[in-house]
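Section 5.1 Outputs to date
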Amino acid sequence: MKRRRFRRGSWRQAVVTLAGVLPMSVALNIGLDPLTSDWPRLATVVANATVLVVSLTWVLLPALYWATGGWAAPHPTPSADLAEPGRDVADVLSP
């Protein structure tokens, strides 16, 4: 299996990610505080981070991608990987 070069994120991806992280982080800190106020600080941080990552991965970032019409999505670049028979852009860009 051939290793692919790491592709850096763009400022657009950073803006969209911040647009999801900031309000969700504030909401979690306010919303989970009554439930986790008696917990050790580390447990509270782990709970907040877990809910944040799950909500970003499967809810917020897909919704923001749809809402922005893919504005922050990386643009496919021509690659030597496409020269292999049976490969298309979706194969190269998938994680």
